[in-house]
Write a structure and sequence with these properties.
single chain, 316 residues, alpha+beta, 5-stranded antiparallel sheet, two-stranded antiparallel sheet, 11 helices
Length: 316
């Protein structure tokens, strides 16, 4: 599979504010995510544990889903959550934060991006690290095999530049689907009562460190193929997340502050109906000509530098 990724990062940032026909693909089907993160990358249990071990647990966040009455669920904070055997199910993914980026040859502006995206080069800071998620490495192979639209194609349709240079998905490790995903990528929270208040905070975009740490702990302590959780391992992982003080967590705080100071924090909730009639255009436009650089916010706090596009072979 060959891709033209330079100047794009469409799969790593929320570029809906730049699209005339923004995709709502993550909010279709029986479950609707409670958060508004775009293209959340679901991590496996082993990947979650690796992030925690590397002191990067503060880069992780959960995703839960609202479901209808016909779908198995449990009610918390007045919301019916997708559940298995009475346990709310969730993914763990990478957090998003506002950064000043200029994808697709646009002007620099505040958009929510993956915490590991260098806003200047639009390259991943952990692409060559052992923490690089398998889901990212395989993208967009899953989509191509399943006949589902890709961000590459959405960007092509919007901006014209060819991004998907061929449609051969190539060889990759298949996605975890069905029962095998339990405990390995899809986790069950043991006690729904503990989530009182947390569900509202997910919807409001105001999760606390303790909230995220609890979910990460459950994921790291889960047993693949089951809903069982090793309490000792979960508690240790939760504590490690709360102790984490990585460049990622510190950079998120700085980006949030810089975006707020510059008046460029993107809207937290995407209203597709309002977007269609243009009523949200002004709220979503947030130029960032004088915003800090990735070096100033991230590299200064210990982030690995990216190699630049001259170091990358064409078409890869």
């Amino acid at each position: 599979m060959k891709l033209n990724c330079e100047g794009c990062a469409g799969c790593c940032l929320d570029w809906r504010p730049l699209a005339s026909s923004p995709s709502d693909h993550e909010r279709r089907g029986p479950g609707e995510p409670l958060d508004d993160a775009y293209n959340l990358v679901p991590l496996t249990r082993d990947e979650v544990a690796r992030f925690v071990e590397r002191g990067l647990g503060d880069a992780l966040t959960p995703r839960l889903w609202r479901v209808d009455e016909e779908t198995p669920g449990v009610v918390v904070d007045g919301v019916r959550l997708a559940a298995v055997d009475g346990r709310p199910v969730f993914f763990v993914g990478l957090r998003k934060t506002p950064k000043p980026v200029a994808p697709f040859d646009t002007e620099r502006q505040w958009l929510r991006t993956c915490v590991f995206l260098d806003p200047d080069s639009l390259q991943c800071r952990i692409h060559d690290a052992d923490t690089y998620p398998g889901e990212c490495a395989a993208y967009p192979s899953y989509n191509l095999n399943l006949g589902v639209g890709t961000e590459c194609e959405r960007v092509e349709a919007e901006y014209g530049t060819e991004r998907l240079l061929d449609d051969d998905p190539g060889e990759y490790e298949g996605p975890l689907l069905g029962p095998q995903a339990l405990g390995a990528k899809l986790f069950g929270y043991p006690d729904p009562d503990e989530l009182a208040g947390v569900v509202d905070r997910i919807r409001d975009g105001s999760l606390r460190e303790t909230d995220r740490a609890a979910f990460v702990g459950v994921a790291a302590g889960s047993r693949p193929g089951t809903l069982e959780v090793n309490d000792e391992r979960a508690a240790a992982a939760t504590a490690d997340v709360l102790d984490a003080d990585s460049w990622v967590g510190r950079a998120i705080d700085e980006w949030e502050a810089a975006a707020a100071e510059g008046g460029g924090v993107p809207v937290e909730s995407w209203d597709s109906a309002a977007a269609e009639d243009g009523s949200e255009d002004d709220a979503l436009e947030s130029a960032a000509p004088d915003a800090p650089t990735g070096d100033e916010i991230e590299v200064a706090r210990g982030a690995p530098e990216t190699p630049g596009w001259d170091a990358v072979d064409d078409g890869e």
